[in-house]
């Protein structure tokens, strides 16, 4: 509650750079941060570990990328993040992610991947 935007940026960036956390406090911080567009921006700028895909998927954060006709700003950020940083480096991870969602891909997410 008392965190300012710069505190969020510092904490989320540090956690995101190190890959998915294992302690409850850090997990809660990332989960809370991914509910806000501004905090999600900090996350996508720093997160590059392959393990983030499965970690985020387990929490349902990617669901809109496979279901919703129009993506929210936050879902758009995540779609571009996956396409830009994971499509070429970890394509099998993305194919598995899409497969687990019955090969349904939101048009905006598809566009980001194809671009």
Describe the structure in your own words.
- The radius of gyration is 14 Å and the shape is globular.
- The protein has one domain.
- The chain is built from 7 helices and no strands.
- 63% of the residues lie in helices and 0% in strands.
- The chain is mainly alpha-helical and 115 residues long.
- Helix 3 runs parallel beside helix 5.
How is this structure best summarized?
The chain has helices at 5-17, 24-33, 37-46, 51-58, 73-86, 91-99, 107-114. By secondary structure, it is mostly helical. The protein is globular.
From N to C, what is the helix and strand string?
A: HHHHHHH
Largest beta-sheet details: none
Cα end-to-end separation: 39 Å
Instruction: Output the radius of gyration.
Output: 14 Å
Helix and strand content put the structural class at mainly alpha
Shape from CA axes?
A: globular
Round the mean pLDDT to the nearest integer and report it: 94
Question: What is the domain tally?
Answer: 1
Q: How many DSSP H or I helices?
A: 7
Low-confidence stretches: none
**Strand elements, count:** 0
Strand content: under 5%
Helicity level, as a percent range? 55-70%
SSE diagram, text form:
Elements: H1 5-17, H2 24-33, H3 37-46, H4 51-58, H5 73-86, H6 91-99, H7 107-114
Keywords:
115 residues; mainly alpha; 0% strand
